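Think of the structure tokens as a kind of shorthand, similar to the way a musician reads notation: each symbol stands for something richer, in this case the local conformation of the backbone. In the example below we present two proteins back to back. Begin with the first one, reading the sequence and then the tokens, and try to describe in your own words what changes along the chain.
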Amino acid sequence: MREDNSVKISPATIVMGLAALMIFGLFGWLTFGPKPAPLPPPQLSLEGRQYLQSLALSNVHMQAAESYVNSRLVEILGDITNNGDRTVKLAEVTCVFQDYSGRELARERAFVVGATAPGGSLKPHTTMGFRLPFDTIPESWNQAMPTLIIAQIQFE
């Protein structure tokens, strides 16, 4: 008499195994698959470019402090003045940090008016202070004041 040593798998087990493989494959593709390209940062509109001459940054200086987790916190402090006739709801600057050879090292965007900036809107012919904290600047930064470029303006 001959014994049958073959393994018998029921059709239900095969279907469940294939379903589990498909679920794990879909999970892996969604987790590790292609990511959509990040949206480009907002651009300065034509209206904003025309109004740019009405905004002035002044008294801009830096200070550094050690944070609670033993990392360096660099702050850029200054004033922004609205010399125009429109209320600015939001103004965002791009801070360009350079290394010791003058090459661009990092770009950080921050709000000087509106969004997370204290003080709300900037009315015509007024000045308000701003504070831009940075704690992720690379160590190879040249410690000089970054270049500040007004990158976005929105009006009320």
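Once you have a description of the first chain, move to the second and do the same.
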Amino acid sequence: MTTQLAQTPMPDTAPHPDAPVRQSLLGLSPADLEAQIVAAGLPKFRARQLWRWVWRHGLTNFDEMSDLGKTVRAQFSEMFHADRPVVTRRLQSSDGTIKWLLRFPDGTEAETVYIPDRERGTLCISSQIGCTLTCSFCHTGTQKLVRNLSTAEICGQVMLAMDELGDWPAGKPNRRLTNIVLMGMGEPLFNYENVAAAMRIIMSGEGVGLSRRRITLSTSGVVPEIKRAGEELGVNLAISLHAVRDELRDELVPINRKYPLAALIDACRNYPGLSNARRITWEYVMLDGVNDSDEDCRELLALIKGIPSKLNLIPFNPWPGSPYKCSGPERIEAFARKVLKAGYASPVRTPRGQDIMAACGQLKSASERQRRQKTGVAG
């Protein structure tokens, strides 16, 4: 079967330099919004009305907010906006996966991916522009950290996806976006304040109303913030593990040099709310001849013993210049059988979106190369 690739380039847009500066509603908590409404001389209930129009119905046009008077709508339009990030490229895979390259007002770019499945639709969102971790198997690790994404920019990824998927009003039956994973560009726990604020907004019952049980935060092992995330957010935890010996993990996931496996495992063992109903997911990318031996599997099982767990075995998605190859199908299957025999759920992640540069960061790198070619700047 021939792979069908839908690719939609999007024009750049930018506000007029003389336009008044308005604040994004997508980064304001209910309390923040109420404080600004009251400061503008309006009654508190206007904040609740505005919040519901933006977060429950997804509106960006104040003129469509029918229970607000004309004068109030005009005042709000001068104070706020609910704009989404600009889509500069949109790719759709033959398997239904959608990947957006998003550009923010300062010209920086990040990626967001929607992955449909039979019973769920998962949105993978980014938390930073680039990354500091330099994980050797990760394409984003080849990109320098530019900055953290703001709360509004993190929320904007969710809003944009819901726009395209037709998921308004929020909470309607059979909505297509059912789960969020913080597994895109960046390390979420290095941008904890903005990530936490965004997730509280997304989880609000007066807005999108996505349960914390449907949100998974993936970290490479920022040990001091793991407990805090569990206590304050209560979302699911995934660990980007990939190796079971410090010397190898130091190479694959260099943050291990600061927070070695013993400290990471201890933090996971004590993750707040951990139970058989709320297990830690261990992400383990399968690298041919690197971490996929029977001995690796035995050490992995010993490492996580006693921790309510499930394993996510990830066939490596090669990217140009990568020094690694994916483990063969038989090796992955043998590894998975041993994990399953030990009593752990061991799904092997089906590669998705391979025809649209689905490895995290690939689309952004391609965009940057094109920009350098146009401007004649060496990369």
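Compare your description with these statements about the second chain. The two ends are 37 Å apart (CA to CA).
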